[in-house]
Model the fold of this input.
Amino acid sequence: MNPTDMLDRQIRLTARDVTVHYGTKQALHGISIDIPDRAVTAFIGPSGCGKSTFLRCINRMNDTIEGAKVGGTIKLDGEDIYSPDLDVVELRARIGMVFQKPNPFPKSIYDNVAYGPRIHGLARNKSDLDEIVVSSLRKAGLFEEVKDRLQEPGTGLSGGQQQRLCIARAIAVGPEVILMDEPCSALDPIATAVIEELIDELRENYTIVIVTHSMQQAARVSQRTAFFHLGHLIEQGPTEDIFTNPVNKQTQDYIMGRIG
Ligand SMILES: Nc1ncnc2c1ncn2[C@@H]1O[C@H](COP(=O)(O)OP(=O)(O)OP(=O)(O)O)[C@@H](O)[C@H]1O
Done:
């Protein structure tokens, strides 16, 4: 995607001057970024630079961390997600999250996916629910592998399958945005390749933000990249430009493997 394409796309998320403090320690300084619809945006940078902290701001997961204080503004389709009258449970259905370690519930494959639609009242009856479960598993590229064992525990699947189950679980509640925090770091190269292909398919219908330690992965799966360093967003732009022609010296050093 070149910068012109960015202008053609709807901006789904806008962050302005976002700061995060953990107690007295400031972890993020004035982060401003626009995240476009139907594209993958990668957050890269050395360990501890604040990638995950910023990702967690986007669906208010930092609310669950004691002592964390978020400042600035984040809007989803123009709506302030930190507005006091916003329903956080609803927000987390619209902005789903997939974690580093696959974390299926200790329930059947079917119930893992049906859980969200049940609590959000998305299915009128059992056949509606069946349809949501099957279509979510299909979209996550898992249905064919599990269709004969939907009642077996989700935890009995391989790591890569569990991660796709978690993606199906996020998809089942009809999100607009999917946040992924190093979704492949616990997976082998083959399972990683499957998830990367899946991310590439999902971007046709979702806004995806991925935190990754792997620059190769960012280059393979994303159209936009943002480079973080010591709590600052140093540089952002089309992935190709960030990797081939970074403007900032710190970005250059990171890309060249000189920091991090
Ligand atoms: N719950 C917390 N309490 C206190 N400090 C925290 C907490 N979570 C993160 N931090 C601090 O905030 C800073 C940013 O951490 P964060 O995990 O967001 O970075 P990261 O870039 O995602 O790192 P990594 O790549 O290692 O996961 C770090 O200095 C970290 O120690």
